[in-house]
Design a protein that fits this description.
The protein is 55% helix and 9% strand. The protein contains 43 helices and 19 strands. The strands form 4 sheets. The chain has a 12-stranded mixed beta sheet, sandwiched between helices. It is globular. The termini are far apart.
Amino acid sequence: MNVSTKARRFHRWAPGFLVAAVLLGQGIEATAQKSQTAKNAVNPPGQELNPAETLCAGRTGDDLYFCQLLCTELPADPLCLFARRFGAVGVVVLVDAHEANRDPEEVAREAGMTREEARYLMLVLDADGILPRIWVDEKPLTASEEAALKEASSANQQAITLINAGKYREAEEQARHGLTILEEILGPDHPDTLTSVSNLAALLYKTGDYAGAEPLYRRAMDGLERVMAPEHPYTLVSMSNLAMLLKATGDYAGAEILNRRALEGLERVRGPEHPETLNSVSNLALLLRVPGDYSDAEILNRRALEGRERVMGPEHPDTLISLSNLGILLQVSGDYAGAEPLFWLALEVSDRVLRPEHPQTLMYVNNLATLLWDTGDYAGAEPLCRRALVANTSVLGAMHPNTLISMMNLSFLRWAQGDLSEARGLCKTGILGVREHVQRNMDVAKDDQSLRSFLDSVRDNFFAFLSLFVDPGDESDVFEQVLAWQGAATAATMLINDLERAERNAPASQKGLFVRYREANRERIRLLMIPVKDDAGRADRTRGLKELTDELARLEQELSSVNVDFRRRRALIEATPKEVCESLKANDAGMVVYVRYKHFDPNAKNLRYSDRWSPRYLGLAVNPEGCGVSRVELGSAKRLDTLVQTYRDTVESVRACIESKNLHPDAVGHLCAAELAAMDAAASTVREYIWDPLAKGLPASGRIYVVPDGSLLDVPFGSLPTGTLPDGKTKYMIEDRDLAYLSSPRDAMGLGQPQETHGEGALVMGWVDYTSAQAMPMALAESEFCQRQGCTSIKQQKTRIARAEPAPKESLRSSTECGWATRTWEAGMGQDAPAIAEALGRSLNKGALLTTDWRASEGLLRQEMPGKRILHLSSHGFYSTWEECRKEPEGRQRLLKMAPKRMEAAGNEKWTPDPLTLTGLVLAGANVGAVGTDRNDPTNDGILSGREIADLDLTSADVVVLAACETGRGNKTSGEGALGLGKAFLVAGARQVVMALWQVPDIHTENLFQRFYQGFSPKPTAPKSSRSGKSSTAKTGAQSHEAHIDSVAALRNAQLELLNDARNRLGLLHSSYLWGGFVPMVRGN
C-alpha cells in the first residue's frame, strides 16, 4: 500500500479520532481554547497567520498534507507533533502497526519515537487491542466522496470555533451539516458518524437543550457499543456523557450507575490516569455530592485533581474544573476558609487561560459569589453576581440554565441586602425561565417517575418564590406559580398519555397536524435558547419567534376544533388563575390547595446552603367570586406532620381494639370508647390547624375541592369533627361541606365538562381466591354476566368460593409492609360483589361483568378493564416502601425484575424503584405466586402493580371504586400527591376514583357501597361551553353525550346515611372510623 492510499484512509479515520478522543476527552471548550492559546503563542496578536503555515513550513506533498490536517486547529496537540516529526511516513507506521498486529512499544522503538510520542501512539492504537473498525474492509472513495468528507471535517471544525465564540446557533448548523454528510457517505453506524452524533449532543447539552441532546447521546452510545465494542473508549466516553445529562434532568440513580460502568471500563482500557478516565472520576464525584455523600465525593475529587495536575498541568481547563469542584465540596461541608482560595485560584487562571466571558470562567464567578454570600460578604458577592448574570445572558442566552441560576442567585443576594423590589423582579423573571426550561425538556423524561425527578431538581426555585412573595397582594402571583408547579409531573404525564392516545386514535387527516405541531413547538423552544450578540440577531430571533408563535396558535386552533382530547388537555396544562376561578364558579365550587414547601432564609450567615431551608406548610383558599385567593401560613411542617401522625396512630388504635376483641362493629362504641374519643380529639386538633384558618376564605356553599400535600394526603377531611350537636353527638365536616379531592389544582379546569366518550357496562371483581392456582386457559375462565334479569349461578358460585378458600392463620394487615414479599392474603373480601353486579346490571344498559374466585386474575383484569365505564374492585390493595422491600429477599428480587436492564447490571444498591411498582392490587393466586393461573400470561404473579395499571388505557372509565383497605395511600412525593393505586388509575385515564385512607371493616364497606349503588342511575347533563367558547359537543366520532355520574355526591349521601343510621342505633357511641375512611378523587376531563 502506498503512502497516498494510506493517507486517504488515515484522513477518513483521523477526524473521528480527534473529535472523540480529544474533544470529548478534554471537553469541547477546553480543546478549542487550547487551540486558540497555541495559535496566540505562535502568531503575535494582530497577525492572522495560520499556525500550520509556520509549523509545517518546508514540508511538501503528503508530509505537508498531514501536517496541515493535524496542526491547523490543534497546533499544541501531540498529533500535530507526530505529523511534524514523522510526516506521511508516520502514517505508514501507524497503518503497518495495526495491520501487522504488532506491539505498539516495538513499533515506537523502531520508529525512533520519544517516550511521549510512543505513549501517544499507544493511545492511538489502543494498547488493549480495541481499534476502530473503520480500518477494516472499507470501500474505495470516489473523488466527490473525498471532497464531501473534507467538507464534513471542515464543518465540524468550524462548529468548534463557533462554540468557542459563543455562536451556538451557527455552531449547531455546522455540526448538523457535517453530520448529514457523514450519514450519507459513511452510513448511520460508522464510528465517525456516531462520534459526530455525540458531538452534536454535547453541543445541545451545553445550550441546555436536554430534550434534543438525550436521544442523540443514546444513539451514539448504543451505536458505538454495537459497532466498536461495549468497552471501546468511544463507547465508554459516550456513556459517561449520557450519565451527566441524566444528572442534569434529576435521574441521579441512573446517572450514577452509567458513570460507574463507564469509569470501570475506562480504568481497564485507558488506565487510571488517562484524561477520559479522570473525567469520569470527576463526574462521579459530582453525582455523589448530590445526595450528600461528601466523604466519597471528596476522595474522588482529589483523585481527579491530582491526576489532572500531573497529566494535563495545573492550568489546564479540566484541572480548574476539579479545583472548583473541590471548593464546592468544602463549601457545602462548611469549610469556607478552605474553599475560598480554591475559587479565587480557579477564577484567576480561567480569566487568563480561557477568557473572562468563557462559560467555564463564569461558572467560577458564580461559585465565588455564592461563597462570599454564605459568609455574609454581600458587598464582595454583588459585583460577581452581576458579572455572571450579564455575561451568561450575552454568551449563553437568557433562557440557558446557567443564566437562570445566576439570575436567581442575584435575586437571593438582593433579598438578603434588603432590596426586595429588585429581588422580586429577578425572582419572577427567573421562575418563568425555569418553567420554560422544564417545559422544553420534558421529552427527556420517559415516564412520570423521570418527570418527578426532573422537577425535583429545580423545585427549590419554586420554594424560593413562595418564601419571597409573602406580602398582601402577592396571592395572585403565588396562586399562578402553585398552579404551574403542584402536580405538574402528574399533569404532564396525563397530557403526554392523552395526546398520544388522541394522535393514535385520530383520523389520518389529523395526524399531520400533530406532527407539525410538535415540530413547530420544538423549533420555537430552540429559538428561545439562542443567545443574541447584537440588534440584528435580536431582530431575527424576534421575527422567527413571532412566525412560530403564529403558526402554533393556528395549529392549536385547528387541532382544538377537530380533536376534543387535544383541546381539553391543552386547557389543563395552560390553566391560569382566572380560568380556574371561572371553572370553579361555573360549578358552584371553591378550592383549598395545600403546599408543603421549604422556606428559604437568605440572611442566615455561615450556614450551609441546605441549612437555610426549613419545611413548612401553606394553604390557599380560592373563592371564585372575584377570584379571591387567601394565603395562610400554617407553620412548621414538623409540627403539622406530628399532629397528623398522632391522628393516624389513634385510627390504628381503633382498628387494633376491634381486632383484638374480635368485635362486631356495632359493639365498637361500647368496648373501644376510649380509643374512639382519642381519635375524635386528635382529628379536631388537625382540623383546627389545617382547615379553620382557611375556612373564612371559602364560599359559604357549594362543593369544595381539596388538593392536599405532604402528610395531609392521609387525612379524610369529611370525617374531621367540627363541633357538637345539641344532643351531644359529634358533628362532622361532611355534614356541612360537600368535599372532593383533586390531584392537582389545575384539574379544576376540567370540572363539570361532559365526557365525549364513555365505556360500556361495568366490571365487578370481588371475593377473590388468593390461594387457588387453577391451570385453566383464559378462554375458559368465563365470568358471570349480569343484566336487568339478574346474574346466573350466583348462589352456586358463593358456595364454591367459601369451600375453596378457608381463612388462613396469618394474613397481611399493614399495607406498609412489603406487599411483594411472601405473604398470606386474608380471604373473604368483597362478598357483596354479586349483589353489586346485580344492581349495576339493572341500572346500566350494557350490564355488568362479575368476576370472582380464581377467575379474578391479573390477565382478565388487563383484558376487561379497558372499555368499561364502571370498575368496582373489592380486593386487597397495598403500598410498600423500598426500605421495607429491600429487607425481604423475595420482595427485592420481584421488584428488581421490573427495573430497566441498565439498573440490573449495576448491583442496584442505590437504585430506588418507581413508586408505582411498590403498590399493587392483589388478585387470584397471589398466595401461591399465581403459578399456572393463566397459561396465556406466564408473567402473571397474582398482583397487578400500580405501574401496570397506569400503563393501561382506562379513559373510558367514569368511576373506579377501590373497595379495599388503604387504597388511597401511597408513597408521598413533593407536590405530586400519594403515589398509590388511586394515582395509578387517574394516570391511566379514569375520571373519578373512590378509595380508602384506612381499613374500614368489611361489613361497613359492603353496607356503604350497597347504598352508594342503590338507585345508581346516571342522569343526563347539558353540554357546557368549552374554553374556546364553542359547545363541547364536538366529537371525534359519532358517539353522543351520555349521562354523567357524580361519584362524589353518591359517596357523600351513602356516608351520611351510615352516619345517621349509626347515631340512631348507637347514640353517642358512633364513630367516623366506620364510614369516614373512603374519599373521592376526580381529575379534569
